[in-house]
Amino acid sequence: MSIIDNKKQPSFHIRTFGCQMNDRDSEIMGQLLAEQGYVESMEIEDADVVIVNTCSIRAKAEQKAMSLLGALRKAKKSRPGMRICVAGCVAQQEGLELCERMSHVDLVLGTQNLYALADLLKNLDGTQKVAITLSDAYEIPAFIPTLPAIREYSVDQIDSNPAPASHPFRKFLTIMQGCNNFCTYCVVPYTRGREVSRKVKDILDEAHALVDAGISEITLLGQNVNSYGRTNSVTPDGGSYSFSQLLREVAAIQGLKRLRFTTSNPKDLSSELMRCFGEIAILCPQFHLPVQSGSNAVLSRMNRKYTRELYLQQVKELRSFRPDIALSTDVIVGFPGESDADFEQTMELLEEVRFHSSFSFKYSDRPGTRSADFADKVEELVKSERLTRFQHRQDEICLEQNLLYVGKVLPVMIEKLTQDGMVGRTESNHIVHIEGKIACIPGDITSVTIHHAGRHSLNGRLNSTQQKGAA
Ligand code: SF4
Q1: How many helices (H) and strands (E) does the chain have?
Q2: SS3 assignment for 276-340
Q3: Does residue 182's CB lie within 6 angstroms of at least one atom of ligand 1?
Q4: Which of 77, 110, 167, 226 is deepest in the core (most CB within 10 A)?
Q5: Which atom of ligand 1 is nearest to the CA of 186?
Q6: Which fold would CATH assign to domain 409-462?
Q7: Where are the domains of the chain?
Q8: C-alpha closest to that of 117 among 172, 214, 42, 38
Q9: CA of 465 to the centre of ligand 1 (A)
């Protein structure tokens, strides 16, 4: 007997690991289940359905998900009716083998199959295992939730992007899935499949629905948003359509206050897109542009298909359109074959660009990637030393960059009220701890005078001329 037959209101619990794509996928699964009458359980132990949304981009996220699955074996022994579903990249990679290895897992759901979750659960009677993974031809279904997101999913965030998890006033909107770039260290093209862009109409319908539901800020989400619309037709007439066009259309939605996007590969960054930062008023001056390494030799082995010179040229151009743009990046240290001289070039690039923040990691082999077979692996100790040096200097630069905000009056979007005041976020994506309170709700924008800067956040006071809801 399926869970649905068994109970009037079955409950579910979702644990998410990894990146923002997973965060949004969890939200979609939650919305799909809520529409089928499921209620969310805050406690994993009480849930009828537990979904573990996994990530295999970095070893740490995979280990954490596996350890949770191990713990769930015990939970299922005491509650045999519980259904356990594994979704995300690990599910995609392992398929049915995961059920064989972990007999307590009932359903393995590949990255392109989350929309089938509710139907698959209906048919799960506890006697058979089901695994459904990537198909060759894939179109992202049109999906406009009729119910709001259940809550803010807390991603066990180790991914590289600085944008926050979803809040009721702020949402991610997936515009594409998969990736065609095949960077040699990355599992995404294998776990999420080839690049597929959603139809313009579906995206705009969802954006309108979000704004109508009171969402103030939207982050357009994809593995490589710069190549939106390049691999499949996104308009009814099949004509060409760029990411910049999409940005302009979403930005024109009445009532939307802030717009962001992530993630970008420098090799596909066009001048047309960079110009948007100077021309779209609600596009936040914040850009995450992963560089990965400052050495052309390493970039080539990573198959990144751009050079440090191109990257630096793009930084210059971006700053010509928005001098105040806050740039962040990803860096991998200790990629196979990275010499001391290669690493010094990464340090030099850091000095030249002076990123507002960065996400840096030691290289680790991921199964199935080309770089896992590369010779010349860098010693663990050397990787650690390089990472420490990079992060130490980045921390100093973060503080120096943040100190430049002191004395400025900035529009801050309120996120929450605290005992002493409020917490909000600048257009540049800096968290601001605000002294004092005003009558407002999360998503309102108010004017704040910054009086203190730390490495990771700013402190400010309400501007005496501020008005609720106005910047
Ligand atoms: S661009 Fe490279 S690193 Fe980014 S998802 Fe695609 S393959 Fe992975």
Answers
A1: 14, 20
A2: HHHHCCCECCEEECCCECCCHHHHHHHCCCCCHHHHHHHHHHHHHHCCCCEEEEEEEECCCCCCH
A3: yes
A4: 110
A5: 8
A6: OB fold (Dihydrolipoamide Acetyltransferase, E2P) (2.40.50)
A7: 3-132, 162-284, 294-404, 409-462
A8: 38
A9: 45
- The residue behind tokens 């050495």 is 295
* Residue 14 main-chain phi, psi, to 5 deg: -120, 130
Q: CA torsion sign, 415 to 216 to 219 to 316? A: negative
Which are the contacts of 192, defined by CB distance < 8 A and separation ≥ 6?
Answer: 21, 89, 92, 111, 112, 177, 178, 179, 223
Q: Half-sphere exposure of residue 237, counting CA atoms within 13 Å on the CB side?
A: 3
Topology match between the domains 162-284 and 409-462: no
Q: Name the CATH superfamily, with its identifier, for domain 3-132.
A: Methylthiotransferase, N-terminal domain (3.40.50.12160)
State which ligand 1 atom lies nearest to the alpha carbon of 57.
Answer: 8
Quick one: the chain helix, strand, coil %, rounded to 5? 35, 20, 40
Q: Is 181 in the pocket of ligand 1 (CB under 6 A)?
A: yes
Q: Which pLDDT value is given to residue 355? A: 98
155 Cβ inside 6 Å of ligand 1: no
- Distance separating alpha carbons of residues 118 and 28, to the nearest angstrom: 11
User: Ligand 1 atom closest to Cα of 182?
Assistant: 7
Å from CA of 252 to ligand 1 middle = 30
| Best mutation site among 21, 176, 188, 225 for ligand 1 pocket (most ligand atoms within 8 Å of CB) | 188
CA of residue 10 relative to chain centroid, distance: 29
| pLDDT, mean of residues 137-157 | 59
Distance 181 CA to ligand 1 centre (A): 6
DSSP-H helix ranges across 331-372: 340-353
How confident is the model over 383-399, as pLDDT tens digits? Answer: 999 999 999 999 999 99
| Higher local confidence (pLDDT), 155 or 344 | 344
Question: Which residue is it, tokens 């579906």?
Answer: 202
pLDDT reported for residue 1: 55
34 CB under 6 A from ligand 1?
no
**How many angstroms does the Cα of residue 118 sit away from the middle of ligand 1?**
30
CATH architecture of 294-404: 2-Layer Sandwich (3.30)
End-to-end CA distance of the chain: 56
Predicted confidence (pLDDT) per residue in 51-86, tens digit? 999 988 878 888 888 999 999 998 888 888 899 999
Q: How far apart are CA 196 and CA 174, in angstroms?
A: 11
Instruction: For residue 210, give the H/E element and its range.
Output: helix 200-212
* In the block, residue with structure tokens 């996120």: 415
Q: Does domain 162-284 sit in CATH 3.30.750.210?
A: yes
